[in-house]
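Sequence in, structure out. Go.
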Amino acid sequence: MPLLQAQEMTYTQVQQLRKDRSIAFLSASALEVHGPHLPLGMDMFAARWMAEETARRFAEAHPDWIVALYPHIPLGTDELPLPGSVDGTQQTVYRALLAHGASLARAGFGYVVVTNGHGGARHAAAVEAACRRASRRYGIRMFSPSIAVLHGIVTGGRHHQIESNLGRPLTEEERQGLLHGEHAGTMETSFALAERPEQVDSAYRDLKQMAPPSFKPLAFVGRVAAPLFGGGSGRVQEISDSLAGGVGWLLNTRYGYGGEPVTYQGDPSAASAELGHAIRETMVQGCLDYVQKVTGGELAAEDVRSIASDPAIIQPGFWQRLGLFSALALGAAGLIWALRRG
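Output:
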């Protein structure tokens, strides 16, 4: 069966859904400032590309399945707080996706794939947490493969795959450009040059490598704490560096921490349309591989997770639960004290 557009489906078609042979794809990312050279919709464009192309290829490979593509959800959190960005709360993103999961389960879908082009830590955490919660609560397999794939591109884990799609080795400039930041840097600028070159300001050629300031207290805690985790120290250091960079960037753009507002990370000048086509192909291959494994029973939906699912402090509801626990603990302590005095 060809790929269906959800908004064009009839009630009769919905009634024909079988949980073991139906899958929905949707994307979720908001508008955000991406340097002086890229359009605000970069995260949306990337998320939509992964949803549309992965869904198309899956439908082509599985003609006996019902594959539906749902409209984009223009929500996000942890966007750069600059004019042009559209920022919401983490709970808004989480609850919206949880509600979508409930509706899709009620419609009869057995699988739901959520793609996301925004690397904000709390945004990615909300997307993945909502997928896990919806899966448990509504009896579906809902997961988000995109950040796990994108993380591999910007940390080197998928560079061999990019080179295979390029048909040549990465140049040192390209490799370093990919490793030094994804936000409006080499990766996203290349993506845009491949998909919509007319919307890329030619000034990207003159933009050199830039990075936001790291929040030093958090970075220091990470350096001190990481060795305490033995074999997991590298992972802990990576997480703390990521959080320190994210916090530092938000403080930079909102309060001027570390100097003038930084609007991109990495090296846009290393970008090219050629590299962009290889990156786009790698993104879809990675997402499709996860989808094939989950629908084929090789991988559990809850095991599709990225680095954003690890730190407890960025998970939806963490601070609310901590506040409630603290209030209960204080109340219990107060009650015990009062009883002892009595």
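Check: The chain has twelve helices and five strands. The two ends are 75 Å apart (CA to CA).
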